[in-house]
Amino acid sequence: MEFNGNQTATDVNQTKPIRCIVKLGGAAITCKNELENIDEENLEIVSTQLRQALLSSDKVVGMDWSKRPGISDIACNVAGFRDKLSVDSTNFIVVHGGGSFGHFQASNSGVHKGGLQQPLVKAGFVATRISVTTLNLEIVRALAREGIPSIGMSPFSCGWSTSGGNVRNLPVADLSVVAKTIKSGFVPVLHGDAVLDDVQGCAILSGDVIIRHLAAYMKPDYVVFLTDVLGVYSHPPTEPNAVLLREIGEHSLLAIAVGEDGSWSITKPTLQHMNNQVEITVAAHDTTGGMVTKISEAAMIAKLGIDVYIVKAATSHSVKALSGELRAKIPDDWLGTVIRFSREEVQ
Fold it and tell me: Strands 247-249 and 264-268, how do they pair?
């Protein structure tokens, strides 16, 4: 891994210990089939759950002091902060996908294929970034309304880039900005973005790849992917024979497997006549690989010894994942997918 500027591995490792990295799936917080339409209800629930799970105080003092459409008053509770000795904060990072933001612009202009010298691609690059940064601002505002000290951070603006558009290659990134943000008591909120590429000119850097990169250097206790479905299924979840896969991991005495390249196989439940293959569909406009990329990146994070939970957003199951309850033992009634290294079951 290369480092930009004055960044060193020591600089990154000296940041405060990271409790959790959370991926807000685009399909969970937007109406993915409706162009640039946020699922306001889900986003509000997710923001509340993040506060409840990761902050120490139940008292909400909002930090979004800007005017909102349809609301005449600005919610600026200055008095609420005068009584506080400090701002509640725990060390976690949020990364979100695009959902119905960005994918349309990128796929229609070919940004993900490169060719920045072409007028259409260059225009699409601009349009894609306008779209994804618009969503990022709205997510930051939703978190801020819950009293989470959130700071929006675009990978492009932080100097992140890729090489050859290959999602298996970690991006060149300056993590010192993220580390300093955490050290200052803020919660970085990053997102999938259009970035420069030293081979093909430009590319799409997915939020799932960003999380793997952050996990490798920030070493969180665990990682949570919040999605629009309960977890990883054997088939698309709309099909009647779809089975929720409870665990994916490394081959050992428990007969679970994560390969060096992020390849993976099923452990439980036992699937008959499937040869451990999973059928996954990807929307035509999705330029980041959808669930295929998510599972592969999550498997690579698990190779680092970090538990990964894929779970439906805005549910009681996601609350348990976010709070860290699942690290001790996975309840039988918990619905989601765990991706991790094999280890002795906690008694």
Answer: antiparallel
d(CA 149, CA 64): 10
Q: What confidence tens digit (pLDDT) does each residue in 190-245 have?
A: 999 999 999 999 999 999 889 999 999 999 999 999 999 998 887 788 888 888 87
Report the Cα–Cα distance between both ends of the chain, in Å, rounded: 39
Q: Tokens 């819950």 identify what position?
A: 146
The pLDDT value recorded for residue 102 is: 96
Which strands form 150-152's sheet, in the order they lie side by side?
Answer: 150-152, 187-191, 92-96, 20-24, 222-227, 307-312, 337-340, 247-249, 264-268, 257-258
Q: Which tens digits make up the pLDDT trace of 63-80?
A: 999 988 777 777 777 767
Asked if 330 contacts 338 with a C-beta cutoff of 8 angstroms, the reply is yes
Residue 149 gets the label, from left (phi > 0), alpha (psi -120 to 50) or beta, of beta
Rounded distance between C-alpha atoms, residue 294 and residue 246, angstroms: 16
Does residue 67 contact residue 339 with C-beta atoms inside 8 Å? no
Q: Are 30 and 37 contacting, i.e. CB atoms less than 8 angstroms apart?
A: yes
